[in-house]
């Protein structure tokens, strides 16, 4: 490390970061001191120490209270990142003290098979000896957590290229779409060659309008000179889709094929015999750009791919 940088690091203390964040969050030295449980004079002294290290004011007083300067905003971003790293380290230390190899903070989108996710988590805990914190959400929500260093990696679909700056990703597997319905509706439709026009009057549960799945399905209807379906419910929750379709024999939805296999395995929802000739966006593992991926990420990726292949092979058995 450069000598000047080393001297800079040696002068900084963790309490400096906590004070900066508290002042920014509360917009007041008095309220920040109360929140940290220290006197106002102690907080003011700590702030003076930090500003002396940076060689410039980090906050300015305005009619709206105390607000960060441009340099202060940079210091805050680094402070938050550092404290998030400390929190990650603390969880890893706890995990290793409890006999685990490490701890993985994992974000997963709803498009993953729940059976695949459960088996993967079981494998990581029982065979790889990891402990995990699992976050569920859409890609946008999880990438925000990734950039805030609240998760180590995300398993999901890729966002637009401009949302991938500073991130790395690799392909895990492709997903096919499948149409699912109540078993009674599937039985009625199964008596003939099912076509999209047969589903025009169905009650649809669909993903949000700006999702690739919804857009591709709409294109498929238009290609067949049909009006795209107007859903009665818009959701990406596989739990909601399964529950609603299982209780209504006029409902139809579109989900990844491996999620449809989950439904079919539980016997409450059937897959329609209408194969769409296109693929859904692929599933990737997304993380911060690093020289080397975390070993836990490598175990996660390998387990997901292996277990999915095994489950697909089992589902293909007559």
From TrEMBL:
SUPFAM superfamilies: Periplasmic binding protein-like II (SSF53850), Winged helix' DNA-binding domain (SSF46785)
Domain HTH lysR-type: start-end pairs: 12-69
Keyword tRNA-binding: no
Pfam families, sorted: HTH_1, LysR_substrate
Matches recorded under InterPro entries: LysR_HTH_N, LysR_subst-bd, WH-like_DNA-bd_sf, WH_DNA-bd_sf
Keywords: DNA-binding, Transcription, Transcription regulation
PROSITE patterns per UniProt: HTH_LYSR
Keyword Transcription regulation included in the entry's annotation: yes
Origin superkingdom: Bacteria
Signal peptide range in chain numbering: none
GO molecular function: DNA-binding transcription factor activity; transcription cis-regulatory region binding
Family listed: Belongs to the LysR transcriptional regulatory family.
Name of the molecule in the record: HTH lysR-type domain-containing protein
Lineage: Bacteria, Pseudomonadati, Pseudomonadota, Betaproteobacteria, Burkholderiales
């Amino acid at each position: 490390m450069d000598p000047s940088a080393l001297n800079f690091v040696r002068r900084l203390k963790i309490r400096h970061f906590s004070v900066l964040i508290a002042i920014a969050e509360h917009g007041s030295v008095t309220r920040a001191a109360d929140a940290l449980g220290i006197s106002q004079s102690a907080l003011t002294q700590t702030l003076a120490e930090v500003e002396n290290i940076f060689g410039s004011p980090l906050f300015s007083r305005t009619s709206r209270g105390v607000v960060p300067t441009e340099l202060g905003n940079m210091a805050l971003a680094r402070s938050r990142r550092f404290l998030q790293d400390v929190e990650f380290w603390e969880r890893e230390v706890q995990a290793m003290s409890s006999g685990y190899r490490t701890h993985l903070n994992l974000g997963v989108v709803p498009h993953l098979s729940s059976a695949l996710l459960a088996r993967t988590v079981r494998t990581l805990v029982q065979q790889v000896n990891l402990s995990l914190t699992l976050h569920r959400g859409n890609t946008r929500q999880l990438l925000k957590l990734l950039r805030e260093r609240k998760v180590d990696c995300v398993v999901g679909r890729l966002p637009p290229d401009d949302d991938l700056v500073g991130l790395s990703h690799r392909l895990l597997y492709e997903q096919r779409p499948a149409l699912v319905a109540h078993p009674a509706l599937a039985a009625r439709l199964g008596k003939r060659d099912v076509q999209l026009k047969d589903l025009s009057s169905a009650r649809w549960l669909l993903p949000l309008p700006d999702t690739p799945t919804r857009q591709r399905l709409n294109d498929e209807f238009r290609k067949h000179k049909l009006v795209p379906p107007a859903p009665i419910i818009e959701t990406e929750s596989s739990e909601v889709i399964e529950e609603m379709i299982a209780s209504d024999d006029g409902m139809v939805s579109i989900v990844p094929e491996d999620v449809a296999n989950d439904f079919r395995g539980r016997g409450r929802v059937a897959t329609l015999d209408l194969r769409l000739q296109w693929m859904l966006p692929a599933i990737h593992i997304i993380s911060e750009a690093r020289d080397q991926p975390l070993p836990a990420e490598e175990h996660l990726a390998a387990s997901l791919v292996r277990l999915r292949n095994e489950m697909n092979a089992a589902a293909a058995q007559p």
